[in-house]
């Protein structure tokens, strides 16, 4: 069997993220995951939360990385991966589902894409839609740990559009889109898990 695309970070963070998602998504049915990467989160969360129907998505140019692991998933609650670039609006979905999740993506995509993501959700998400974002964030213009400062330097070397985002700026976009911050949870390895609900 060929080895599947693999992220060690996903393996490390999937348990702690599941602990929160299994509580926060307990009354949800449909989840759209943005920037699903290798599909490790999509397959693990689908298996652990069979009450959810999980839609993994990726940018078209990276979707072949996502497909192999998803195609090995044997349950019925993981939908086939769909191409989605969050900056291409309107998104190619009939409706925004009742929950959205993304890990480690806001610091990779350009800020204009972060703005587009919240713009789309502001226009199309219904009341009570949950948005859960996992990753590193700065607070008050400061890194939360020296390791995050080093990580940000590496991001800048890899791409000038990538950077650890300021929590306050992201929360302002969310607020403009009608989303209220419900939880801001400290996670291992200096990451955060942010939960917003649309009013
Ligand atoms: C560091 S990876 C994270 C992947 C996965 N969520 C994880 O936690 O391992 C960042 C992902 O963001 C995706 N991405 C970047 N810009 C995007 C955009 N505009 N729309 C959707 N996905 C995007 C990349 O293709 C990549 O898979």
TrEMBL record:
Gene3D superfamilies linked: Vaccinia Virus protein VP39
Transmembrane spans: none
Top-level taxon in the UniProt lineage: Bacteria
UniProt-listed Pfam families: DUF938
InterPro entries: DUF938, SAM-dependent_MTases_sf
PANTHER family: UPF0585 PROTEIN CG18661
Name this protein carries in UniProt: DUF938 domain-containing protein
Organism lineage: Bacteria, Pseudomonadati, Pseudomonadota, Gammaproteobacteria, Cellvibrionales
